[in-house]
Amino acid sequence: MADALFVVLRKVGLFLGEGALERIGTEIVEVASILTNFEHSMKQIQGELSILQAFISQVSAHKDGDKAFDAWLDQVRDVSHEVEDIIDEYAYLTAQAVDTSSFFKRKFHQIKNFASWQKLPIQITQVEARIQRLAEMRNRYGISIVEDDKGSKLQQPNQLRMSDSAYLTDNSETVGNVDEIAILTQWLLEEKQERTIIAILGMGGLGKTTITSSVYKNQKIRRTFDCYAWVTLSQTYQAEELLREIINQLIDQRTSMASGVVTMSRVRLVEAIQSYLQDKKYMIVLDDVWDKDAWLFLNYAFARNNCGSKVLMTTRRKDVSSLAADSYVIELRTLRDAESWELFCKKAFRLSTNNVCPENLTSWAKKIVARCQGLPLAIVTIGSILSYREIEEHAWKFFYNQLSWQLANNPELNWISNVLNLSLNDLPSYLRSCFLYCSLYPEDYKIKRKLISRLWIAEGFVEERGDGTTMEEVAEYYFRELTQRSLLQVTERNACGRPRTFLMHDLVRDVTSIIAKREKFGIGYGDGTTHVAHEARRLSIQRGAKSLHSLASTRLRSFILFDAGVPSSWIYDILSRFRLLRVLCLRFADIEEVPGVVTELYNLRYLDFSHTKLKKIPASFRKLVNLQVLDLRFSGVEELPVEITMLTNLRHLFVFTVHDIQEISLNCLSATKLPGNICYLKNLQALYTISANKKLVSQLGNLTLMRSLAIVEVHQSYAAELWNSLTEMPNLSRLFISACDVNEILDLNTLKPLPNLTFFWLAGKLEGGVLPSIFSENLMQLKLDWSGLRKDPISSFCHMLNLVELCLLGAYAGEQLSFCTRWFPKLKSLQLGDMDHLNWIEIEDGTMMNLHLLELAGLRNLKAVPVGIKYLKTLHQMFLTDMSNEFIERLQGSDNHIVQHIPDIHNFDSSDSQAVHNLIFLPYLAKKFGPGAINYASTKRGSSGS
């Protein structure tokens, strides 16, 4: 609840810590008297807001649903936004005041902004007065820290109604999860002497309680235990009450009363339960466990007596499920489409024969079920509501079109929003803002982990820990925590197994969007929203941008455009109103030049012009001194101005185009010229893709924070300087090097091993046709193009036990490749192409035991299908391009038995460009560069063919 305060307090702390007033020096003496007390006032405000934040964190858990508290909290949020506006306005005015472009321009800005400077003390005075009134209102309306457990008792009835409903569900109404129930039953009945902890994990509303209830009430299972109990922990459980409830269920309540359970302390209650269970086989269910702390004392209460006892936990959190052994964790998934439909019909058409959906409602019913995305709670609740609605198409159509509104306003759907809100309310402040930000993306949008991490950092949501850990690494920790809380669903992982993209469940996104809008955090326009309130702090335009004629908000911090169909004139006009922006994302926008107002956005941290028609970046970019991310991928920019090197806060610079989408040519990526002294960019962590020159490669060594680097057009004459610079980058993990042409020979023998390198792509001939021993065991992805190797290279890196992707394209001039037993245990993808003399591939039994994808391309001299492919039992896909006719004939005939276990085999000829383009390279580009690469590649291909 206090996330707005959390963000603004971090901003105030940074402002005071940087000595903002000292930076101005004598440049703005005209307003020096105005600013004399500015820093003192901000320190006072910081202290007040810190106390407010502490107070809110203590009372918010007990005040859920308290309208007076919610209204007061809304006032606190407004005050925190006002403070943030003051800080950002100050930063904006300061940047203009110290603009070094010219003396006359500085003076012009100082005179022009004099009135704005004068407003700052007035605004601070108003904020101080509002903070004082907040304290008065808090006292007036009795908003205070709740003593004892009164708050939890107020909270309990609703929680019990939700959990009781799931617990009391008739087993005949349960649909799906047949396998999970069978496994759970098996675990409860197995003859295992030691106490077993079992966890059922999943997001809110998946049916964890329902499934657990079905086995708990099973009489066959109950008869195998001496005693059993079921308790719901919830977020506000009281330890003593929980222990008393367990005792009351285990033994007769009259007996427990007589033994003085009501007055026992926590320790005595634990001892009483332990004593009772000491010689018994028991089954206890802990429903809705939110943290590990609960288990600290329950672990002592539940005796480990080797009687075959079982403890079942249901939880939304992965860290809680880790209390059980891995083999005793069931992670629930959403229902399949057929199961969702069956469950919905059981509820919505319970009065009809066989629960059949009327034909006139089928299309709308299926749309409603699809919106539930297999979430049982939503399906049951919505189906039950619709069961007493009229059987008319227009009524169901209206309900579907108003579903987002219904979630926010219909009391009958409170269960859905309440269950999902529990997860959101459990988030700490530093995570809550990050999660709310995810709701700005369109429905079913696959959000990239790296992209959203950079946006969080730009917005100020991610803390600087200062122990050598980057904010990007902290953001990754945030992401991991959100997934472990079952709030985000990982949809794709990279070669290293780290999450690449994720989705928000539609209903989770709907509920989160409602909260983001209500709290003025942000709005997704075109997502059921028809207007934008002036208080909105963030705006994503998902569709219908042309209909947005008026936008009064000047407080925007993020502007993200997903609607690519708007004219450039609309973009230029609307941007002129948002001078305090921190994030500007115009990906796919129809613009050919940088809008002039952009270089006046002094607070900008994140700027995305990727997939646009931009060809030039103006020198005035030097003003964007706070810029952290500049994304120009798939634009027409081929040279950056020297002023880019003045952006000393830049962390990520992406500027490249893919000329060859098949990546079979040496210069498949564009070379971007970066003049000037790159030494100034000391915060740079990622740089893609720059054209090498002698001066630049020697300067690269100053960029010691570099994690990812792509450099092309490398000459051997200055390769030594490049190798020396690379060794000055201790954290370098991704590296792409391309020679200036196919005849240039690169000598890597003086390149020292790069211990943290996980991805290496080298395009160019190697000295002597020999691969040097520079690769560490940490390498996961290796791509060698046109290397001219004379000796079988496979044995040179067989020691790379962590390698998951290997690509050799024109890299080897020999006739035979050998893959021996126990080599490449983690390899998942193997690509071999354009090796003219290769006529034999030996694959021994026991090698590449996890290979999923095999690509063979342009191996014209390979006549027979490698016999060892039959040993690759995990192989799912095999792509063949430009292989000899004899190879294909044997594959389809006499050698077919070798590949009969592979379910997906595709054979292409490069002349069939449509098939290759659509089925191989577009999916590859989408995976590597994002969905925009598909549009770009299709456009380029269409224009070249016209």
What is the structure about, briefly put?
With 946 residues, this protein is α/β, with parallel strands linked by helices. It has 32 helices and 29 strands.
Descriptive report:
- The chain is built from 32 helices and 29 strands.
- It is an alpha/beta fold.
- Among the domains are: 3-140; 151-331, P-loop containing nucleotide triphosphate hydrolases (Rossmann fold), CATH 3.40.50; 337-409, no CATH class; 427-515, Arc Repressor Mutant, subunit A (Orthogonal Bundle); 522-626, Ribonuclease Inhibitor (Leucine-rich repeat, LRR (right-handed beta-alpha superhelix)).
- The strands form five sheets. The protein has a 17-stranded parallel sheet. Strands 2-3-4-1-5 form a five-stranded parallel sheet, with helices on both faces.
- Strand 17, helix 28 (719-726) and strand 18 form a beta-alpha-beta unit.
- The two termini are 56 Å apart.
- The model is unreliable at 148-161 and 939-946 (pLDDT under 50).
- Belongs to the disease resistance NB-LRR family.
- Residues 556-878 form the Disease resistance R13L4/SHOC-2-like LRR domain.
- Keywords: Coiled coil, Leucine-rich repeat, Nucleotide-binding, Plant defense, Repeat.
